[in-house]
Request: fold
Amino acid sequence: MPSAETTRASVHEPELVRPTKEDEVAASGSELIGGPIGRRALPGTSWWTPVRIVALIAIGMFALGMVQKLPCYDGGWFFGASSQYTHACYSDIPHLYQGRGFADGLVPYFDKIPGDMDYLEYPVLTGVFMEVAAWLTPGSGSIQDQEQIYWMVNAGMLMVCAAVIAVCTARTHRRRPWDGLLVALAPAFALTATINWDLLAVALLAAAMLMWSRGRVLAFGVLIGLATAAKFYPFLVLGPLFLLCWRAGKWREFGTALLGAVGAWLAVNLPVMYFAPEGWAKFYSFSHDRGVDFGSVFLFISQWLKITITFQAANNWALIMMLLICVGLTALTLTAPRRPRFAQLAFLIVAAFILTNKVYSPQYVLWLVPLAALARPRWRDFLIWQACEVAYFLGIWMYLAYTTSGDAHKGLPTDGYQVAIAVHLLGTLYLCAVVVRDIFMPDRDMVRRAGDDDPSGGVLDGAEDVFVLGAAAHPPRHAAHFDGPQVEWGSQSAAAGDSSP
Reply:
């Protein structure tokens, strides 16, 4: 029996949303562990809270992803180009240990790297992450041993990032901690987590989303600045936030967030920018000058039509498409019958950047997983998208196996790889489409259908609109507006501290 203190404290906690009650796929999946919880159960009284369960599952799935890389760890990274592709266990991490001078003790951005690259082509905070891992890697033994240890050290550091992402996602929506399982159990997340260092930026952005949801505006801005210092894409979420703050009249909060982001980014970048300008600029020049690459819509068009698309043309078309999408998101935000949720627009802008980019590395799916869990927490749609991403994950490695296996032609030919790219593009577009539908039809949004307004919105949650266009601007202007959680705080379920899935 729960103690009197526990019962009294839980009365003030909101009733948690149970996905097994609102999602048929979650209900069916729960049969593996005994089925949906019964109405007479008294959850929330043990150490096994939803957030802890989500964190442990995320760590377990990450460990399974490490096991999947075992064939490469045992030699595939070193003794043959094609075997790391046929086993789908490729990782940049061991290759760049020597290829970017870490094995020789070179300092990123300051020391030139032998070869064509000259300097490390990653943003500063990611370079710091890579350098710290190099410090923790013993310099003795063969280069193969060192690369194995370097990958293992990075994997340990990235596992911490994965746990942070899962916990932050679970805590962003106070009443929906079980949505963190979408991140923890995402198959593409486990498969791609140790390909590169993207999880650092993803973790910082997930922490920023949590801070914004709790009204900690400056902390959000600082974390966005740090995330942008690790990867460019997190800065994009400030665009949707600007639109939402415009509609709600929250200019002071947006200004604080923007100043925090710019200040944090400058604090990380200015020292390197000043003392090693050429090395610092390498990431930006490389991003601008690189050609059309794997996974992109431009490569699909180039291979399908058998034409050459220069990097200048790809840059121009990518910019035009992103500008058009931004115009569309502006119209969507300001004319929607109800102000969109922050997570919905954050997902859409990052997805747009991925879809219009001139390269799509398989680990880029990590950018979207936590945002998708917040934007559209429905297992059916999430798993459809994940199936498409797993298909692309296998497709790119099989295609590389085909191109590196010589006359043996082991793997997937160009026509098959085009199908894999199309599957990835269509899967992402599908998830974007259902998110846009939720914005136009708020009654289809699972978060709002459960009685919330914008739990990731922080100061935007339940705020009045001050600038609206289109039909939503005419009376009754706030007829569908939400003024607070529709929860009976003194209900029996709230008093029981319900925390079951």
